[in-house]
Amino acid sequence: MIEVKNLNQSYTKHGKKKTLENINLTVKEKAITALIGPNGAGKSTLLGVTANLIKPLSGMVMINGIDVRNIKTDELAKKLAILKQTHNINIRITVKDLVEFGRFPHCGGRLTDIDKQKVKESLEYMNLVGMEERYLDELSGGQRQRAFIAMILAQDTPYIFLDEPLNNLDIKSSVEMMKIIKSLVTELDKTIVVVLHDINFASAYADYIVAMKNGRIAGEGSMEEMITKEVLDEVFDHDFNIVTHQGRNVCLYFDRTFNRRKIYEVI
Amino acid sequence: MHKQAILREKRTVIIFAILAVLLVVSVLLYIYSRTYAKALRLNIVMDKSAFSSIMGRTIPALIGMGAAAVLIAVVSLAFQTITGSRILTPSMIGFDSVFVGTQTVLVFLFSSMSKAFTNPYLNYLIVAGTMVTVSMMMYGSILRSNKNNLVFLLMFGLILSGIVRSGSTYLQVIMDVNDFNQVRAATSVTVNNMNTKIIFIALPLMVAVISIMLARHKIYDVMSLGPDNAKSLGIPYEKEMKFSLFLISVGMSVATALIGSLAFLGLLAVNIARELLKTYKHVYLFIGSAGLAALALIAGQAVVELLQGAVPVTVIIDLIGCSYMFYLILKENRV
Q1: DSSP letter string over A99-155?
Q2: Is position A112 within any domain?
Q3: Taking CB atoms and an 8 Å cutoff, what residues of chain A touch B273?
C-alpha cells in the first residue's frame, strides 16, 4: 500500500512558493488512479516525489508501512517502477536491450533464464514480438511507448507510475495504450497511478480520479463523483459541459463563442 | 539469437581485432623510430647494449603513454555518460586549468623551494586534492541542480578556466623569476617530457581508476538511459554521479600531472569508438575508446620521432582525429 502523508515540496529554496502543499493520499490497490489537473498543478511532481525521484521538503511517503527514504534504491526498484513523460534517450538501443534493462534491479545486468523469460513475456504482452532487434528511433511513437511499458513490465513491480503515457500519441495509439494499462490491472493485478491530460481518458478508464490544483488535491473520488461540472469547472477554471455516453461521463470543453477576438482571423 | 545481433557481434570482434593489430604495429613502429631509425639517421651501428639501454627508456614511456591514454578515454566516456552529452570532456571544462592554477598558487605562496613543490609526491597529492575538491564542489552542485543543462555547464567551465588561467598568469608575472621558471617547468609537462618522478604513485592510481570504472560498466549502461529511468531501475543516481565525478577528478589529475593536457584525445577516442562500434554498451565502448586513444597517442608519437620531433604529437592527433570527426559529422548529416 502506498500512503502519502503531509507532503510539501518546493522548487525555490526556502519553500515560499510551494509546488505541493499538504498532500495526503492513499493509493487504491489494484486499480488505476488518474491524476488530473491543469498545467503546473503539481501532478508530475507528486508522482516524482512519491517514487522517490525528488526529495520532498517535508512529509513522507510510505510503501507497505515503510518510509521510502529508508528503502534502498535497488529494493525500491523491485516494488515501484516509474516512467517519466520525457524519456529523451540519447543512445541508440534496440527494443530487446531496452526491455532487458527492466531486469536490472533483479539481476544487476547479468540475465538469468528467469530474467530472459520475463523479458520474453513482457515483449509478448506488449505485442512487440518481431520488433526485438529494431532500434527505438526506427519505431513509431506508439510502438516506442509500448517498448518503454514493456521495460517497466519486465521490472515486475506491483506498483507502476506513468507520467503522461499518452503524450504525443495519436487517438488510436492512445486508446490502445489505455486498454493495455487497464489490462495490467485486470490481468496482472498491478496498481497504477497515471497522470493524464485528457480528462475523457481518465473518465473512461480510471477506477479512481484525483484532481489537483495549485499544488493541492482539489478532490478525489470515483468517476461519477469527479467528472461533474461543479468539480471540473473549479479545478480547470473553465466552463465544462458533461454528457453521458455508455454509462461514462464525457466532458465537452470546447468554447465556440469568440467574443474577444476572432481567433480564426488571427490564425 | 537474432541474425542482426550476431552480425553486430561479429562486427565488434573484427573491429577489436583490427584495433589490436594496429596497436601492436604502432608500438613496434615507436620502438623502431627510437632505435634503428635514429641509428640510421645518425649513422651509428645499433648494437645490443645500445638497444637495451634505449629500450630501458622507451618501455616506461610506452607504459606511461598507454596508461594515460586509456585513463583519459575511460574517464571521458564516463563523464559523457553522467552529463548525458557527446561533446563534453573533462578537459574541455577547465580540469587542466585547475592543475596549472594550483601549481602557480603553491609556488606563489610557499616559493619554489618549499617541500610542497619540490617533493613530487606531496606536490601531486596537494594538486590532486585541489582538483578533486574544486571539481566535486562545482560540477557536483551544477549537475545536481541543473540536470542536463549542458550549455550552462559548458559556459561555467569556460568561465572557470578563464578565471583560473588569467589568475595564474597574473601570479606568474608578479612572482620571482626563478619561481616563474620552476612553475613553467612543472606545468609544461608533455608526452616527450613526462613527469616520471610521480610514476610510482601515478600508475597504481591509474590502474585503480580504470579498473573500477570498467567493473561498473553495467551501471553506466543504465545511467545512459537518463537520471529518471536510472533511478526507477534502482540506481542511486546522485551517489553514483558523485562517485564517478570523484574518480574522474582523480583520473584527470593523474593524467594531467603525468603527461600534461591532451585536450582532444578523450573527445576523439570516445566519439570515434561510438561511431565505429555503434553500441551503447559501455564494456565495448570502454575497450574501444581506450584502444583508440592509446593507438592515437603511440602512433602519433612514433610519427613525431620519425619526423625528428618537428611537430608535437598533439598536432598530429588533432589533425588526423579532427579530420576524421569532420568526415563522420558530414557523413551523418548527409544521410
Answers
A1: HHHTTHHHHTT---HHHHHHHHHHHHHTT-TT-TTSBGGGS-HHHHHHHHHHHHHHT
A2: no
A3: none
Distance CA A54, CA A45 (A): 8
Residues of B with CB under 8 A from a CB of A: 2, 4-5, 84, 86, 218, 221-222, 224-229, 231-236, 278-280
| Average pLDDT value over all residues in chain B | 85
Please count the other Cβ atoms lying within 10 Å of the Cβ belonging to residue A197: 15
Cβ–Cβ contacts within 10 Å for residue B144, how many?
12
Q: Give one DSSP letter per residue of B30-89, joined into a string.
A: HHHHHTHHHHHHHT----HHHHHHHHHHHHHHHHHHHHHHHHHHHHHHHHHHHHT-SS--
ipTM of the complex: 0.87
Per-residue pLDDT averaged across B225-232, rounded? 88
Question: Are A51 and B4 an interchain contact pair (Cβ–Cβ within 8 Å)?
Answer: no
Please state whether beta strands A191-195 and A159-163 pair in parallel, antiparallel, or not at all (unpaired): parallel
Domain holding B59, by residue range, is 3-334
Tell me what pLDDT residue B170 has.
Answer: 92
Q: What is the pLDDT of residues A113-137, one digit of tens each?
A: 999 999 999 999 999 999 989 998 8
Looking at CA atoms only, how far is residue A239 from chain B in angstroms?
36
Look at chain A and count its residues: 267
Structure confidence at residue A252 (pLDDT): 87
B224/A91 Cβ within 8 A: yes
A74 and B226 within 8 Å at the Cβ level: the answer is no
Q: Which residues of B touch A93 (CB under 8 A)?
A: 280
Conformational region of residue B308, where left means phi above 0, alpha means psi within -120 to 50, and beta covers everything else: left
Which secondary-structure segment (H or E) carries A32? strand A32-36
The total number of structural domains that make up chain B: 1
The reply to whether A24 falls in a domain is yes
pLDDT of residue A259: 59
* CATH code for the domain of A165: 3.40.50.300
Query: A105, B233: Cβ pair inside 8 Å?
Result: yes
Q: At what angle do helices B282-306 and B263-277 cross, to 10 degrees?
A: 130
Give the count of domains, chain A. 1
Domain CATH number, residue B253? 1.10.3470.10
Length of chain B: 335
pLDDT, tens digit, for every residue of B136-165? 887 777 766 655 566 777 788 888 888 988
- Predicted TM-score (pTM) of the model is 0.88
- Which of B232, B274, B276 best probes binding to A when mutated, by most A CB atoms within 10 angstroms? B232
Name which of A45, A91, A159, A164 to mutate to probe chain B: the one with the most chain B Cβ atoms within 10 A of its Cβ: A91
